[in-house]
Amino acid sequence: MIVFVLRRILLGILVLVTVSALVFLAGQAVADPAVGAAGDAATAKDIEARRVSLGLDQPQLVQYLNWATGTLSGSLGTSYRFDKPVAALMMDRLPITLSLGTLAMAISVSLATILLFISARRPEGAMDNFVVSVASIAQSVPTFWLGLLLILGFSVNLNWLPSSGSGSWQYFVLPSIALGIYGTPEMYRVGRASVLDQTHALYVRAARARGNTHGQTFRRHVLPNSLLPVIPLVAVQFGAFLGGSIVVETLFSLRGTGFLAWEAVMTSDLPVLQGVVLLVATFYTAFNILADLLSKFLDPRETP
Amino acid sequence: MNQIGSISGSKLRLSQTSGEMKVATGLAILWILAIAIMALGVIATGSNPFEQVLGSRRIPPIWFEWLGLSNVSDTSHLFGTDKLGRDYLARIFLGGGVSLLICFSAVGIAAMIGTTLGAIAGYFGGRVDACLLFFLSVRLSVPAILIALVSAVLFGSSLIMIIVILGALLWDRFFVVVRSLVRTQSKLGYVDAAKEAGASTAWIIAREIGPNIRGPLLVIVTVEMAHVLLLEASLSFLGLGVQPPLPSWGLMLSEAKEDIFFNGWMIIIPGLFIFALVFSINIISELLRISITRSQGRRGQVGMTNTEITR
Amino acid sequence: MSAESLLSVRELSVHVSSSSQARALLKNVSIDIPVNRTICLVGESGSGKTTLGLALMNILPESLRPSAARMHICGRDFEFSDGDQWDKVRGSQISMIFQNTLDIFDPLQTIGGHVGEPYELRHKGSRAELSKLVLDALSISGIPNPKEIVDLYPHQLSGGQRQRVLIASAIINEPAIVIADEPTSALDPVNSLLFFEAMSRIRERLSSSLLIITHDLRCADRFADETNIIKGGELVDRVGAHQLLAAPNHPYTRSLVSYLPAPGYGSRHFLKGESHRAASNSEETHVYADCLQDDG
Predict the structure, then answer these.
(1) Segment C94-113 mean pLDDT
(2) If DSSP codes are grouped into helix, strand and coil, which group holds residue B131?
């Protein structure tokens, strides 16, 4: 079992290393960083000097290793635009993204649970079909449009909540709702499919025969078995949310890492982008590993 | 060659494949039709979607007139005009056409990449499979939109670039589904029979396994179409997709954002169109899924060896 | 006769309610289970015996519709439509030992949890009390060291152990009626006999009545007080104790018996208690003949 955990983590590390290599190469592909770093008024000699000082005359692999070790020790380069360390910039923005992600996740899970309870009472019934349609509709709605509608409704017309920016908790309400609604349909669908699978399982009949009522059968047997495939999905989803939603943050001008990425694109600030990509990849990979481990450990049939 | 054998062979192939082929052909026709309608629509509005008439900016749609909320609207601009005086309806039509074009092309590229890689991984298994799966993990460790953003910095944002990037990003679901389908199919008897008959690998994959996975593949195509549309809309909204003066519904939404406080209608229309298009595609994919699962009982395991019949 | 019966059913029918023509899996079956008796129900595959067992506890799948003129169980009349009254008696007054497959178990439930559940659902006793009852039930069912398996999960047990766990959960509340649905189909001849012997012991100890659905004619003949023969959803014959093999009158019953190989066939291999798959298997009727004979 320990072997499994270690192998999984190793795989994750390999993935991250590959991503970092690609990120590094992307950095090389764009305009000469020496030019950017030397400034607008630099002469050819200045640029050359810069190149040496930045270590750009070294072979690619050496450059990569230098860069990689620097990254691991926390230095991710300097932002072209802000002239501040990338790591510092990201740390500054991270709490907001994490808050948004967690809030949105809470909303998603709650909504999905409520919908599931409604559906599960009478599967394939009128209410169930209705909820499935609602979920289908929600999946077809572009998130940024939903955000815009929320702004239109609650900021412009009702003036209850701010439409953009960062600050107190009010600034988080609309973005969390938008992002939360985005994450709900998938969770609901998988949960519903899982419940449907379980209600047709043979042990349901045996449970009834032992004296479980319909409700008891559901609570004691169907529900735990249904949750089994859903939990890894939730973990992956959480990783995605924590990785930041660029679209929602940018729409609401919420100063998180996603918005930072967008700003970096607008100003061609590659070091920042590289940093964000690495950060997001780390979150995704970590939570994917968590999901794999969870599905292995929660099922007694898997745990040796 | 046995005349009877070859006739019945080709007939067999037709009936096997006619179901999905019909849908695929239908879809292709629908696409071409849609783009054509878009083009016609632009012409029909009588307005040039690019022409800026600064004198008539931000005219509300015709129904504002009907509801008595404005007296500036007129029938020459059924959906009103945007902030630069361009006819809204014409831009909606053109934007739709552009989005559909991107969607179709990108899904085509993604399907080719994903299906090929998936078939290889599923058929050969072993190291090749492990390698490709690792490749998949790397791709999935960063969300598509972020990669698209980075690509925008590296390669710019032309129409071709968007198509290529989206196509190069969204092959993952094709890969996963085709891989698992090919894996299960490979274990069935008819593949061994074909191998014994001396068929080459390419033949087996294309002509033997191929027809048996067309159904689910079609479902994935529709699912990814919706995916591409939403992704392209998001990118255009962020300013990194379709570039002005070309319209795109996502781009129109971002342009409308500035006016949200005074001209709310501007954000409702393009969003509604995006939603309507994506929703109808999702419905199609659901219907396809249901019909596929229904016919799977009959056809899933029945893979006739084409090799035998045409000998 | 009806007054003494623990279970009395009249004209029980079960229909498949699909869109195509409704098919009747059971047609107007009437059956009685007297107090303290072992009743066997034998028939070929697909004759409707399992359906009958499920119907008697009203746990048929949704797509099947039961109906009966009368369902009288343990002194009360039952309607198929009234779910609540069935919940009260299932697991406590009437219980079922299912065919032993892994799927019949909730994979997330421990053995102890599974066996104790019928009791736990009804009584608010202490943990220690429940634990003792569980261990007792497992012992009676033939598990030598119950403590070792209570904390295990179903997939960790052997087929034979799982069979006994199913018995244990069915008897923990000391029900009046125990229905066993083809309990020995997956068992070798030695374990089949052991099962029937265990059931006899249980019957004596708990004074329960048994309804054993089986296609093992030899065991039916040996252990049943009464054997009902079912064919195509209808009860065609009824014979008393030890009369099944001896002198069947009904042509169908005779034909069933005739497929059995000669007595003692293959049984000499089992003398030393070796496990063995069924010695013969009629192509047509899947009537097993793997019960040991006294003279084997």
Answers:
(1) 91
(2) helix
Tell me the Cα Rg of chain A. Answer: 24
**Do the beta carbons of residue C160 and residue C191 sit within 8 Å?**
yes
Report the predicted TM-score, pTM, of the whole model to 2 decimal places: 0.78
In this structure, what is the dihedral angle of CA atoms B159, B222, B253, B272, given to the nearest 10 degrees?
A: 150
First to last CA, chain C: 38
Chain A interface test: which of B99, B134, B138 (most A C-beta within 10 Å): B138
Phi, psi of C95 (to 5 degrees): -135, 170
Give domain C33-59+76-252's CATH architecture: 3-Layer(aba) Sandwich (3.40)
The position carrying tokens 């999901």 is A291
Residues 6+ apart with CB under 8 A from B28: none
Decide if A262 and B149 are in contact by the 8 Å CB cutoff: yes
Domains parsed from chain A with CATH numbers: 86-298 (1.10.3720.10)
pLDDT tens across B83-103, in order?
777 778 888 888 888 898 899
CA–CA gap between residue B104 and residue B163 (Å, rounded): 9
> CA angle at residue B200 from B198 to B204, to 5 degrees?
100
Q: How confident is the model over A243-264, as pLDDT tens digits?
A: 878 999 999 888 889 999 998 8
Q: Which residue of A has its CA nearest to C122?
A: A211
| Distance (Å, whole) CA B14 – CA B29 | 20
Q: Which two three-digit tokens encode residue B8?
A: 């019945």
What DSSP designation does C292 have? Answer: P
Helices A143-150 and A170-199: crossing angle, nearest 10°? 130
What are the extents of the domains in chain C? 33-59+76-252
C chain contacts of residue A211, beta-carbon cutoff 8 Å = 87, 90-92, 117-118, 121-122, 173
Chain C residues whose CB is inside 8 A of the A205 CB are 54, 59, 61, 98, 104
Q: At what angle do helices B210-238 and B159-169 cross, to 10 degrees?
A: 130
Across the interface, whether the CB atoms of A18 and B226 are under 8 A apart is answered no
Cα–Cα dist B203/A228, whole Å = 41
For residue C252, what are the CA distances in angstroms to A270, C246, C258?
86, 14, 10
Q: Supply A222's token pair.
A: 């169907």
Contact call for residues B105 and B163 (beta carbons, < 8 A): yes
What whole-number distance in Å separates Cα of residue B203 and Cα of residue B197?
12
Residue A120 or residue C13, greater confidence? C13
Tell me how far apart the alpha carbons of residues C252 and B116 are, in angstroms, rounded to a whole number. Answer: 61
- Are C57 and C96 in contact by the 8 Å Cβ rule? The answer is yes
Q: Exposed (0-12), middle (13-18) or buried (19+): which is C275, by Cβ within 10 Å?
A: exposed
**B30 has a pLDDT exceeding 50:** yes
SS3 B86: coil
Going by their DSSP bridges, the two strands C226-231 and C38-42 should be labelled as parallel
Residue A303, pLDDT score: 63
Tokens of C155: 């997939």
Give me the residue label for tokens 């006769």.
C1
Strand pairing class (C23-33; C7-16): antiparallel
- How confident is the model at residue C277, as a pLDDT? 37
- Inspect the interface and report whether the beta carbons of C106 and A214 lie closer than 8 Å: no
Which domains does chain B possess? 101-302 (1.10.3720.10)
Residue type, A147: G
For B32, residues 6+ apart whose C-beta sits below 8 A from its C-beta are none
Helix (H) or strand (E) run with residue A53 in it: helix A44-53
Give the SS3 label for residue B247: coil
Give tens-digit pLDDT for A99-110.
Answer: 999 999 999 999
Place of tokens 């979150």: A283
Residues facing residue C180 across a β-bridge:
C97, C212
Is there a contact between B216 and B230 (Cβ–Cβ < 8 Å)? Answer: no
> In whole angstroms, what is the distance from residue B77 CA to residue B69 CA?
16
